[in-house]
Amino acid sequence: MNQRRLLVWLSVALLLLLLFCLPRLVPAARFILAFETLERNSQGLLEYRHRKTGIVFVRIPWDAGDYLLAKREVTQRQWTAVMGSNPATFRPNGANSHLLRIGEDCEALPVDSVSWYECQEFCERTGLMFPTEAQWENACRAGTTTSYSFGEEITREHAMFQEKIAYREGDPLPRVVRMDHFPANPYGLQNMHGNLFEWCFDRFGDPADGKRVVRGGSWTSAAEASKCGFRWGTFPDRKKEFFGFRPAFHPLP
Fold first, then answer.
1. Distance CA 249, CA 128 (A)
2. Which residues pair with 40 in a beta bridge?
3. pLDDT digits over 31-60, tens only?
């Protein structure tokens, strides 16, 4: 009888232990299987490589809990490897091929013309996620309080945006650029200002409208849209040459 009671108590104790530990062990195992740890970046933050896609992520500090955000926007090469097609306009025979340099590796450019729904499918196939709008802005600001992560003013030495209303012949035209074209922000993230608007998870405005948030500005927008706090939203099925994607991953163990 005593032996039976002991077995019952041990079973209950084991069940409670599993109930307590599993919620903590599962995310940790999932994280370990999905990422390999790299070295700290020049800003002192840990970086990780997603095993399936090769995308490099930075561990972003946040009071609500650290999370990973891609160091760069998803490239055409990475998108094609996952989705099987390349919708970008900055490629041979694409709508913006005339803006490419001769011999340029366009697959290293960030993918453009992707909808929120397509980014959702990308996440489902890879186990990655959208950043929330709050996570995106926290990473963009990178501990700063200025309009841009590098100060109150922006020039084409900082980001790619629509600098002028009209361009004269010979003026450098705006276009999507590689991730290493401009200096990184204080967290080591590249092109958080300009280049491509980036889809976030959150809804924008009246939920009944179905719009989703995009942040960061683009090569077609004015400098104002590249500010850390600038908000815009649009319909999730829109595929425009100024929409891109930067995935996230959370929670972390």
1. 6
2. 46
3. 888 999 999 999 999 999 999 999 999 999
List, as one string, the DSSP characters of 210-232.
--EEEES--TTS-GGGGSTT--E
| Residue 25 banded pLDDT, cuts 50, 70, 90 | very low
Contact indicator for 213, 202 with CB cutoff of 8 Å: yes
Rg for the chain, CA atoms, rounded: 21
For residues 39-75, b (16+ Cβ closer than 10 Å) or e, as one string?
A: eebeeebebbbbeebebbbbbbeeeeeebbbbbbbbb
Q: How far apart are CA 92 and CA 72, in angstroms?
A: 22
Amino acid found at 30: R
Q: What value does the mean pLDDT take over residues 98-114? A: 94
Alpha-carbon distances of 223 from 108, 137, 147, 193, 227, rounded to whole Å = 25, 17, 11, 9, 7
Residue 76: closest CA among 36, 46, 112, 51: 112
Residue 192 in this model has a pLDDT that exceeds 60: yes
Measure Cα distances from 30 to 33, 66, 129, 196, 249 in Å.
5, 16, 14, 30, 11
User: For residue 247, how many other CB atoms are within 10 A of its CB?
Assistant: 25
- How far is CA 9 from its chain centroid? 48
Residue pair 195/110 in contact by the 8 Å Cβ criterion? yes
- Residue 139 makes CB contacts below 8 A (sequence gap 6+) with 58, 60, 69, 131, 187, 189, 192
Q: Closest Cα to residue 88, out of 247, 223, 245, 248? A: 245
